[in-house]
Amino acid sequence: MSATGLTIAVPRGALLGGTLDLLDTLGIDTAEVRSNDRKLLFEDAGIVTMRPSDVPTYVEHGAADIGITGKDVLLEEPQRDVYELLDLGFGRCEMVVAARSGDDALGESLRRLGRLRVATKYPRIATEHFASTGRQIEIVAVKGSVELAPLTGLVDGIVDLTATGKTLAENGLEVVEEIVTCTARLIANPVAHKLKAAEIDALIGQLRGTRP
Amino acid sequence: MIHPIPAGTRDVLPDEMRELRAISERLRAAFEEAGYGEVWTPMLEYEDVLRAGDDNAADAAYRMFDDQGQVLALRSDMTIPIARVVATRLTDADDPIRLSYSAHSYRTVGRRTGQQREFLQSGIELIGMPGEDGEAEVVTLALSALESAGLARHRIGLGDGSLYRRLLDGLEVPDDRHKELLGCLTRRDMVGLELRVDELGLSRDARDLLVGLPEMRGGPEVLDRYDGPAGDALARLRSLYGVLDARGVADRVILDLGLVRDLGYYTGAIFELYDPAVGFALGGGGRYDDLIGRFGAPRPACGIALDVQRVHIAQAAEERQR
Predict the structure, then answer these.
(1) Which of A28, A44, A191, B118 could make an S-S bridge to A23, C-beta 3.0–4.6 Å?
(2) Is the same domain home to A112 and A175?
């Protein structure tokens, strides 16, 4: 059993660095996780690593007691039965609608064709955003490099997460609308929240103390 | 060739069936021994009947028409059908009435979430015994039934289904904000709850109580930490805990002031059962003093239901531990 008495689901990718820094402040030894990017399960530290979008799945089923993932992931899968306990503040990104710079592809399509074609890895967030602003869209689901889709004429615009806007700009895209700001969140399994209350509360207490 | 069955349903083959049977038989025997007679009710009910019991028909998900054009629904729990039975078939029976069941119910589930659309529940309803005595009997029996099914590490969470709502009233939170705050609590969105409570401009104490209540879970000390309105609900929980302590099951009890159940018919104490081997609650229940009255013959009642398949997972994990 790890020092915290908890199994923690840690996201690989953009949130990994911030997450490990945070775990360091809690006295969890993350050296092995930092040095080995192929290994997935670190029993001594009580850490399991995975894609951010898998974190709610492992936590909901109790395979991990708590986890760290982006608000974007939680918004995309709102049916997951997990506690969202803390806004950890780091990993700040903006969920945006972006389109080709210079021309008004979105407005043009909406006016003349009556609907928008939007590429995204976040179909639920995109659908809800456009529905709540009274526009009909056609979702084109893509797995990687969403920025490519409007450049090739596949779609009119995209809904994606951006931290600095750099990738968008390099591909000749610009932010047209901001949907929601996303940061890293601490989530917990509902049963662990009851059965391991002391361990989870101790961790939250420490995190609240270090939160900016 | 593939002949699929609906997602969230299963065929059970003999090896598993023997084990499932053994578990539901042990649960049933424990209930029977405590005087809870088993009942069957139809899997299909008129939708109007379910709606009489709960405004959302207890989230029944599957409906069809009969040959008269009436809307039928697959039941989503056993409590509403049993309330109907008590109010219509057992009007002359003396209090208390003790009933048990082992039956399938149906709910909608998210795609590829690994959850069951058709699930086997084993449970009890204790009708006509108000207050802590009724709740303590149901809780104690559920705990001992799980023990006889082979579980050793299970716990029960105790809360009050109306506490947060009464807190909002007592702290004079405007009525039009209640729904979103209760929504955050039900979705377990503590970040959203804190944000919205902070918008209300309440006193420091009131704000801390609304934000901190979901964290108040554990031993009897959580009752002492609570300082706010709805003192009578707390007094009832304290007294229920006292009865359970006297019955020797206090070490299995988690007092949980932030506990919520998603069904609307609960009027007081609510329960949820856990086992460390299962990431989901094994089952739950509570007191529903107004439900049977909705079918015309009011009686106080409480009950609890166990998901037999999850109990099976916990029991198998327990066997591996030994």
Answers:
(1) A28
(2) yes
Would you say residue A169 lies in a domain? yes
Query: What ipTM, to 2 d.p.?
Result: 0.91
Residues of B in contact with A87 (CB under 8 A): 191
Residue of B nearest to A61 (CA): B279
Interchain contact, B113 vs A201, CB within 8 Å? no
User: Looking at the domain assignment, is residue A201 inside a domain?
Assistant: yes
Report the b/e string of A25-64 with b at 16+ CB within 10 A: eeebbbeebeeeeeeeebeebbbbbbebbbbbbbbbbbbb
Q: Taking 70 as the threshold, does the pLDDT of residue A1 lie above it?
A: no
Q: Is the pTM of this model over 0.80?
A: yes
Look at B190 and A190 and tell me if their CB atoms are within 8 Å.
no
Q: What does the alpha-carbon distance between residue B276 and residue B263 come to, in Å, rounded to a whole number? A: 24
pLDDT digits (tens, 9 = 90+) for A52-80: 999 999 999 999 999 999 999 999 998 89
Q: Which residues, numbered 50 to 109 in chain A, qualify as contacts with chain B under a Cβ-Cβ cut-off of 8 Å? A: 60-63, 78-79, 81-87
Number of domains in chain A: 2
Whichever domain contains A74, its CATH number is 3.40.190.10
Interface check for B281 against chain A (CB to CB < 8 A): the answer is yes
Residues A114 and A138 in one domain: yes
Q: CB–CB of A81 and B188 under 8 A?
A: yes
> CA-CA-CA-CA torsion for B258, B109, B39, B147, nearest 10 degrees?
-60
Residue A3 domain flag: no
pLDDT beneath 70: ranges in chain B: 110-113
Q: A133 and A205: one domain?
A: no
Q: CATH 3.30.930.10 spans which residues of chain B?
A: 14-42+76-162+230-321
Query: Hey, what CATH topology would domain B14-42+76-162+230-321 get?
Result: BirA Bifunctional Protein; domain 2 (3.30.930)
User: A62 CA to chain B: closest CA distance, Å?
Assistant: 4
Domain co-membership, A116 together with A78: no
Cross-strand pairs, A95:
A161, A180
pLDDT digits (tens, 9 = 90+) for B178-233: 999 999 999 999 999 999 999 999 999 999 999 999 999 999 999 999 988 888 99
Confidence of residue A211 (pLDDT cuts 50, 70, 90): low
Name chain B contacts of A193, Cβ cutoff 8 Å.
Answer: 217
Range of the domain at A38: 8-91+183-210
Let me know if B153 is exposed, middle or buried by CB neighbors in 10 A (0-12, 13-18, 19+). Answer: middle
A78, B187: Cβ pair inside 8 Å? yes
Asked if A84 lies within 8 A of B217 by C-beta distance, the reply is: no
Measured between CA atoms, how close is A56 to chain B, in angstroms? 11
